[in-house]
Amino acid sequence: MRRGTEAVLAAALTLILGVGFWLFTGESIGNGQTDTTVAIEFDGPAAVRGETLASETGCLACHTIDGTPSAGPTWKGLAGSSRPLESGETVTADDAYLTLSIIDPNSQVLEGFNPVMPTDYAQNLTDDEVSDLVEYIKSLGS
Ligand code: HEC
């Protein structure tokens, strides 16, 4: 290969890498949005059990999985998001929050919603079932 060609190739490569890097960093810091999209890890088989439980237990009468609010908030994108509560606090929907929301819903009522969620799931569901439901909610994106 001739010198000239090599230099051109090197320049092209530098340009491509440079633009690529700019696009990459530009995307993560760009347009003032601070929302970080953290991939939520979940247990696949547990999430599948949770999906069945959610319909059998009747959760889906009040919760949707497609982003539409119903009597209760949608589960789409819930895991890991910030939740404004009636108390004025804002909390992150981590595993502990999701679990407590199921077993003691009135302990942290979401702003703008009536506290109509049944409060007897702690009695009617096992710990494993509650955790399967949490895994299912986590599988619905963050
Ligand atoms: C009668 C309607 C109703 C049913 C049935 C119901 N929920 Fe809810 N749920 C709500 C409402 C309303 C809220 C928001 C108010 C609050 O925080 O209590 C809520 C809140 C939640 C939250 C917190 C949501 C958020 O956006 O922060 C989770 C998690 C949840 N429900 C899970 C469940 C699960 C799991 C079931 C079934 C085992 C269930 N719900 C059944 C009405 C319901």
What are the main properties of this structure?
5 helices; 142 residues; elongated; mainly alpha; binds heme C; Cytochrome Bc1 Complex, Chain D, domain 2
What would your notes on this structure say?
There is one protein chain. The protein has 142 residues and is mainly α. The protein has two domains: 3-32; 44-139, Cytochrome Bc1 Complex, Chain D, domain 2. 47% of the residues lie in helices and 4% in strands. The chain has helices at residues 3-29, 44-57, 95-103, 121-124, 127-139, and strands spanning 82-84, 90-92. It has a two-stranded antiparallel sheet. β1 and β2 form a beta hairpin. The longest helix has 27 residues, at 3-29. The protein starts with a helix and ends with a helix. Mean pLDDT is 84; it is low at 15-34.
List the helices and strands and how they pair.
Blueprint: H1 3-29, H2 44-57, E1 82-84, E2 90-92, H3 95-103, H4 121-124, H5 127-139
Antiparallel strand pairs: 1-2
The structure holds heme C.
The site of heme C (HEC) has 27 residues, from helix 3 and helix 5.
